[in-house]
From TrEMBL:
The keyword Cell division does not apply. This is Cytochrome-c oxidase. InterPro entries: Cyt_c_oxase-like_su1_sf. The chain crosses the membrane at residues 6-25, 37-58, 70-90, 97-117. SUPFAM superfamilies: Cytochrome c oxidase subunit I-like. Keywords: Membrane, Transmembrane, Transmembrane helix. It comes from Oricola cellulosilytica.
Amino acid sequence: MHGIAFRFFISAALYVLIGMALRIYMAASGDHAMTPVHAHLNLVGWASMGLFGLYYHNVPGAAQTRLANFHFWVSSIGLWMMVPGIALAITGGPEGLAAGSSFVVIAGMLLFVFIVWRSRGAVSELA
Ligand code: HEM
Ligand code: HEM
């Protein structure tokens, strides 16, 4: 695995490591307020970005495009906004960052829909 696929997968693995560590810290401290942060680090970070990585590994033609690189950055920046954004919103802070992040994250997913659609019929590594 290399290129965009590797970048997505290594980031995803790092996000779930942080998500797990956060959850263990929460369990130890007895403060469960940050569960939505844990959930989104793991599901937007690990599950979704990990799946993007597997897709790009499986369909190299889709990975070798500038749009795939853009998709990586939009998805990453969306998560980097979402995690502190949710934490701020939960702790009674401003909700703007969480709200803004939702548009960046959904823009990343829209890009992915387009990339998958555009690579229909592409040769799969697994085929
Ligand atoms: C060290 C590993 C993990 C620990 C100790 C852990 C622990 C927990 C606990 C105790 C909760 C319940 C929180 C509550 O209801 O207050 C929770 C919620 C959740 N966890 Fe984890 N978790 C771990 C890894 C994961 C992973 C790998 C994923 C996803 C890939 C995940 C996804 C979620 C989600 C989505 C929720 C929210 C569920 C809901 O809203 O009902 N967790 N976790
Ligand atoms: C634009 C992207 C997203 C936005 C704006 C968003 C927003 C939210 C909000 C506002 C909640 C309620 C939190 C609460 O009531 O405490 C929530 C919960 C949840 N979301 Fe998301 N979400 C997004 C993407 C995702 C994705 C992609 C997944 C899964 C792959 C996901 C999985 C969950 C789960 C499992 C919960 C329940 C977790 C909990 O109870 O803490 N979300 N989300």
